[in-house]
Design a protein that fits this description.
The protein is globular, with a radius of gyration of 28 Å. It has 4 domains: about 325 residues, TIM Barrel, CATH 3.20.20; about 120 residues, Galactose-binding domain-like (Jelly Rolls); about 70 residues; about 130 residues, Sandwich (Jelly Rolls), CATH 2.60.120. The N and C termini lie far apart (about 85 Å). Strand 1 and strand 2 form a beta hairpin. It is α+β, with helices and mostly antiparallel strands. The longest helix is centred in the middle third of the chain and has 17 residues. The strands form 10 sheets. It has an 8-stranded parallel barrel with strand order 3-4-5-6-9-10-13-14, surrounded by 5 helices. Strands 15, 17, 18, 19, 20 and 22 form a 6-stranded antiparallel beta sheet that branches. Strands 30, 32, 33, 34, 35 and 37 form a 6-stranded antiparallel beta sheet that branches. It has 9 helices and 37 strands.
């Protein structure tokens, strides 16, 4: 039988060869430098200036250069520790807002040559460069545009100074993978002794279009990071994670939130999620310090994030197609504290053990709606991001099935799209073969550069199926992995809703959870948690995860009386529903003060109250100043039984517990929001309002 041929653009292609053409790119696609950035995944930003020796987070710019005198600076120790933690690069802060330059610059006397370090002959940027080269790590640099020391800052003379600093850094310290910039610009400072506040328009003052051309010319492979790009955007928080649905495409808006495609808005609403079908490929960086602060403080020793907390951040940043930029802070000796070194290695060890063995490579792989022999399923297992499997153009909901001869145990699924052709998948489902039939165990959304699915339990099965359920065009998969994470036994999370139902969940995959209600320590013989249960009274709930041969730390929470019988005015049921993710926000047409009156349903002895604010990225109206009144009948209130401020609540939006000076008997509690953290704000928010009776 003769093969049918059809003319295309003056050529003749057989239908069989046509079927094997590569899919057309979809939407915005990454540049070559961005593809390299996606391969980096985890890197570290290192803060070390005179600010470290002043025990501050932001230096004012007036510290004497002699302040900067680390006794045993070791760039290799920092780089080795970072690499042990799974990092592939270092972004070194060459100049922070205090204006002190860690290289012997010609642009200002406020630099390392005026310090005792290396007898005035030091160049810390060079030492970091050499250490990165020795250990195969990428180097990026951050030179703060805000300079609280420079007398010219805020004038038309400063831009030339800043641009000259960039030229020095981008000429003398080898190839860079990132040109890093943050959004802190203008305010109070030393400014050559003026000691005043200087405001600038950060969208125009630095002439970014021309300033960033310096990067493009001198470091063409360096990705420019700032609030909204050009190459990498800020995720919009310093928590270290992107949204569950995370798009690498992005359409930035102007500072007024109206003009599309205009860079420079530090608080773009779409930053945590990205923009589906956005105009540009600008993926997210998730920055977060290992310690509570970006600079070292002895008072924060012992408060660094645990390896398990870092692992959760990894899955919520790298595992959502973004990058994890973990802040490291050398101490006054010039090295990382040993606690941090140990934590980094433990975190890196977990990553290495988890992803050392891809169970998918021992499976038989089949797929529906394949594109042809040029895009075989074996491409998804070759550990090469440039090769991929693809579906036919009209097949937007294909499936991939992995089959093993004997069951495998896993809790991690890894998916990568061929992002050089764009981000395509909008929804997928994961099934396991159980009791002779398919069982759906997870639904996911965006994939992009990487999607890591971390299941709440381990599954043992001989078959796994991935179904793409929503995509606008043909699907491409470059890599697929099935892994078993080493057992991580951490404290479970215990919650109770307004109906009095208690749920106990583990942030990581576990085999079982045991719990008690009498305050005793959970043992292997304690009650097994299988589903949420009713707890209609005050009690202490303790829970612990159990593994093959060990048990994890105990989680404990003292539940007060449940809100089952409560009612509240202002249609504020969300403020007493036991769910901190549901938020009551006052009427925007009203002004402060705002009040909520809580009816407890019966008279009881009250020892205090609790207020939990909205902790989301776009919160408004976090309460700062407050008053609380009590009443027997909801009519007569008397004087306030408590009033004050919730210090640091805007930056640390956690539950606030306030005890009264003495216990009071009452049925009604009135919470008065006197002032917000932003004094110009008109609304107030309440995630949860509660009482203390125990």
């Amino acid at each position: 039988m003769k093969k049918l041929v059809i003319p295309i653009l003056g050529c003749f292609l057989s239908l069989s060869s046509l079927a094997q053409q590569a899919p057309k790119p979809y939407g915005a696609v990454p540049s070559a430098r961005q593809l390299k950035w996606h391969e980096t995944e985890v890197y570290n930003i290192v803060h070390f200036t005179p600010t470290t020796f002043e025990d501050k987070e932001w230096g004012y710019g007036d510290a004497n250069p002699t302040t900067f005198n680390p006794t045993n600076f070791d760039a290799e120790q920092i780089v080795r520790s970072a690499k042990a933690g799974g990092s592939k690069g270092i972004v070194f802060v060459a100049k922070h807002h205090d204006g002190f330059c860690l290289w012997p610059t010609k642009t200002t006397d406020y630099n390392i040559s005026k310090s005792p370090f290396r007898n005035g002959k030091g160049d810390m940027v060079r030492e970091m460069m050499l250490a990165c080269q020795k250990y195969g790590m990428k180097l990026g640099l951050y030179c703060s545009p805000w300079d609280r020391n420079n007398a010219a800052y805020g004038t038309d003379q400063y831009l030339a100074i800043y641009q000259a600093q960039l030229k020095e850094l981008y000429t003398n310290y080898g190839p860079l993978f990132m040109s890093w910039h943050d959004g802190a610009n203008g305010g109070d400072g030393y400014y050559g002794g003026a000691r005043e506040s200087r405001k600038i328009n950060n969208l125009t003052y630095y002439d970014w279009d021309n300033t960033w051309q310096i990067t493009r010319k001198l470091q063409p492979n360096a990705n420019i990071f700032s609030d909204v790009g050009w190459d990498v955007r800020w995720v919009g928080n310093e928590k270290g994670f992107a949204n569950e649905t995370s798009w690498a495409t992005f359409t930035p808006t102007s500072a007024d939130g109206k003009s599309k495609g205009v860079p420079g808005n530090a608080n773009d609403y779409d930053a945590p999620t990205g923009t589906r079908n956005g105009e540009k490929w600008i993926p997210a960086e998730c920055d977060v310090p290992l310690r509570p602060g970006w600079f070292y403080h002895a008072s924060q020793d012992g408060k660094s994030k645990t390896p398990q907390q870092l692992l959760e951040l990894y899955y919520k940043s790298v595992g959502r197609g973004a990058a994890l930029d973990l802040g490291l802070s050398p101490d006054k000796t010039g090295q990382l504290h040993n606690d941090d070194v140990v934590i980094l290695k433990a975190f890196g060890d977990i990553l290495r053990k988890t992803f050392a063995t891809n169970l998918a490579k021992t499976a038989q792989v089949s797929a529906t709606e394949g594109r042809g022999a040029a895009f075989p399923t074996k491409n998804i297992l070759d550990n090469n991001r440039q090769t991929y499997w693809a579906s036919k153009d009209q097949a937007t909901t294909p499936g991939i099935i992995l089959t093993w001869k004997t069951p495998v145990t896993f809790n991690i699924l890894s998916l990568r799209e061929a992002i050089a052709l764009g981000q395509r998948i909008e929804e997928f489902k994961l099934d396991v073969w159980e009791n002779g039939q398919w069982k759906e165990i997870h639904t996911g959304t965006s994939v992009g550069a990487l999607r890591l699915v971390r299941l709440s339990k381990y599954y043992s099965t001989e078959k796994v199926r991935i179904r793409v359920t929503k995509s606008p065009v043909a699907v491409t998969i470059s890599e697929l992995g099935v892994y078993a994470e080493p057992e991580q036994l951490v404290a479970p999370v215990i919650q109770r809703n307004q109906k009095g139902m208690v749920s106990i969940e583990s942030p990581v995959s576990v085999r079982e959870i045991r719990y008690t209600l009498d305050g005793s320590e959970p043992r292997a013989s304690s009650a097994l948690y299988t589903e949420s249960f009713l707890l209609p009274q005050a009690a202490t709930v303790k829970a612990r995860a159990f593994g093959k041969a060990q048990s994890g730390p105990v989680a404990s929470i003292d539940f007060d009386i449940p809100s089952t019988k409560w009612s509240i005015d202002q249609k504020a049921d969300r403020a007493i529903d036991g769910d901190v993710k549901t938020i009551w926000v006052s009427d925007k047409n009203e002004k402060y003060p705002h009040t909520l009156t809580l009816n407890l349903g019966e008279k009881m002895t009250l020892k205090g109250f609790t207020y939990t604010p909205d902790a989301s990225d776009h919160r408004r109206g976090t309460v700062y100043k407050y008053q609380v009144f009590l009443s027997d009948d909801g009519q007569n209130w008397g004087q306030a039984v408590a009033e004050g401020r919730f210090d640091n609540i805007q930056n640390n939006p956690l539950e606030q517990r306030v005890l009264f000076k003495k216990a009071h008997s009452a049925q009604y509690l009135r919470f008065v929001a006197v002032e917000a953290t932003d004094t110009s704000e008109t609304v107030a928010n309440v995630a949860e309002l509660g009482v203390i009776t125990k």
